[in-house]
Amino acid sequence: MFIFSDVDECQSNSSNNCEQICVNLPASFFCDCGDGFQLTADGHSCDDINECEPTNDCMQKCVNTIGSYNCSCDEFFKPDPTDWRMCEATDPCSFSHGCQHVCFKGSNNQPTCTCFANYELESDEKTCRDINECDPANPRHRCNQICENTPGSYKCSCQKGFELKKDGYECEDINECLDEDLYNCTDEFHKCVNTRGSYKCECEQDLYFIDGKCRGLEKNETYKPLLPKPRLPSQKEKGEAVKFSITRKNGFEWDFEKDKSFKEKMAFLTTEFCNDNRTRCALKGSRRKRRSPLSELYTADQVHLLPGYPSNSSGSLQVAFYVQQPLGLFIRNFSVLPRNTLAAIIISHKSELETAIGANISDVETLFKPTTPTTLATAIPVKPSSNDWKWIAIGVGVGVVVIILILVFVFWRQKTRHNPRVKPAWDDSPHDQEAIAMASYNRGLEDGNAE
């Protein structure tokens, strides 16, 4: 009987290349950094963290140093002896200055107001307003997951399954499998497997979970694991799903092993892509360019097939799925990987996915396409701008003037018809009759001559 013991690579610099901290694992290790530093992409070097960005607790000036930072003061101020982060005026104002926080006299010897750290002066130049560091539109905090604004500062916390690191900003996964009080696996041959923010129970090697127990197979007994039952997706998860087709050849079947292999490969490829393209994946920027092997960005447990899939369609197999975002790392409400990004990952790594499942993939497309209005009746009316209203008012005014002029002209015509001028009497000679017949054409001229 052979007993194997783990070799602690962290005990010797010749077996690890960590610049600062080495963390031993069974049959492996990984590197970490001390306070004020972050791990670089090479996995062993450490870079200084700029504590002055995006925000800090210095009242006025922040000066970054290697592994830390210092505060300094503006002109007309000096450091507060009771708090190195604060500043006090070298020439303070009288008590009746009206400033909410601090009043000082500058070069013009006039009282001027200023505010403490993480406050800004209101338009009245006296009142100070707290800056909300947790505002998503203006992210000034370092919180990895949950940010709570406080007067003049903010506080970080973590979601369930995570704990705050010693830096007070970042969250790290809790390994529930290290504490029996944190996990519950129902069978004695179940082993706890840690996942990001949670855990799962799996049977030990060569054992299968049959009828609620982990057991081995009897002689000549075969066991075919069933496909996992898809979880009930939300409308948002359905909307971000992607579908592809598989041509069914040589008796291809989407079974438990194909399902597992696909999800693991998809999680690996998504992790690789999103580590380098966090914006396209709707993820927060990472202060650590490389994560420890204990916590992958995406895992197979975040890859979900939609209920009813795979499904048969005209000799091909249709597969539709979506990918959940890692807890605490997505921006705003993007709790699902955007469908266009997911489709791009599949298309660019199609050959690797085909190798994983042993079949060809085609017709990659988003499952639900956004609908666009096809008739003017369904179009949303556009509100006129302020300049549009001016032109509308001018048009209405001109129209009213034109209508008034038309009415005046009609009234004048009616009046002239009902009040004709007095005409001279004519005799019955043929000449006179011709003159009467032409009267209607020459009336205007005759009236002018009569006057």
Automatic annotation (TrEMBL):
Domain EGF-like: 31-46, 156-171
Primary localization class, coarse: secreted
Coiled-coil parts of chain: none
A GO MF term: calcium ion binding
GO-annotated cellular components: extracellular region
Keyword line: Disulfide bond, EGF-like domain, Glycoprotein, Membrane, Repeat, Secreted, Signal, Transmembrane, Transmembrane helix
Transmembrane segments: 391-412
Pfam families from the UniProt entry: cEGF, EGF_CA
Superkingdom of this protein's organism: Eukaryota
InterPro entries, A to Z: cEGF, EGF, EGF-like_Ca-bd_dom, EGF-type_Asp/Asn_hydroxyl_site, EGF_Ca-bd_CS, Growth_fac_rcpt_cys_sf, NOTCH1_EGF-like, vWF_C/EGF_Fibrillin
Localization of this protein: Secreted
Keyword Amino-acid biosynthesis: no
PANTHER family the record matches: EGF-LIKE DOMAIN-CONTAINING PROTEIN (PTHR47333:SF4), VON WILLEBRAND FACTOR C AND EGF DOMAIN-CONTAINING PROTEIN (PTHR47333)
Protein name: EGF-like domain-containing protein
Organism: Desmophyllum pertusum
Taxonomic path: Eukaryota, Metazoa, Cnidaria, Anthozoa, Hexacorallia
